[in-house]
Amino acid sequence: MTTSHDQLAAHYGDTIDNRDTGAWDEPSTPPPWQWGAAIAAAMAASLVPWTAWLSFSLPPTALAYHWSVAWTGLDAAIAGCGITSAVLLGRRNQQASLSLVATATLMLTDSWFDVCTAAPGRDVALAVAEAVLAELPLAAAALWLAGRLHEPARSRHPHQGPQQPQPPRGPGE
How far, in Å, are 29, 115, 161 from residue 33 at the CA level? Predict the structure, then answer.
């Protein structure tokens, strides 16, 4: 008897989905890791000259007319990613790792711009303290948790051997 993943998930609903993500079901299309690396490398390489150009062409100061909207929007995005992560984790959904990485990335971005845009003196000291004591540790915790969601179950529980899922029993068994 073949047992589908959905039947096992329904029976073992208290475990995080650890399906093997190494398989690629579409033989006519190359798997994304074959062409994805080239795209990621091209994106990174294109940013090198762009970043160099920006470092010489941007003015040292700028007036932002929507300053409060920019910061409020960034903090709202962080909160939205955090809520999404909490909901997905509450549902034991392994996809929470994606929102955790997004949350961490936005928190790192927030701390970077907090420190870089703070006025000298007390403001920059406060921005550094907030980054070191709150934003960076929370971002690190989110990245750690995202990584843990992708570890095989037996490495999370070394005292237990590999578990073989059993098909659900029928009525009367």
Answer: 11, 36, 31
